[in-house]
């Protein structure tokens, strides 16, 4: 069985999309599927590595949505952070340039010291140009959005003090797997 939303049949294909941390690499075996690598990483407690891996495996809108549903599990966001999360959700529903630029603005207001700012930054890095609207087009590096999604989810799991990190990681990875299987991240409706 494979995740229907992940277009890569083998874990090694996803690992070639970014520079993975040393912790996850020894877990890889030839022919290993993404599901097998995620499961092994979780068993080894390499939650942040599993998050980055899955963020790179998912298509961009699904990856951003995953960050949004993880952020929705928290109720301690300030106004700027809440605006960044709402901007990211708006882009998922209407992935146009106006939504992308608004996410950039909200990321700047929320700062990149939290998961909310990073999920809006992921939207900004999802395509288009990283320069101003009237400047020459400079596209973001491919999969830069996935690094931002992973950063968002990892910060959302560990901040403010790491007290609930392991529980959150398990929940967030289950939500990501639900999305990879075609769900919306709502674990109450997981297949």
Automatic annotation (TrEMBL):
InterPro entries: DUF6931. It comes from the Bacteria. This is Twin-arginine translocation pathway signal. Pfam families: DUF6931 (PF22011). It comes from Enterovibrio qingdaonensis.
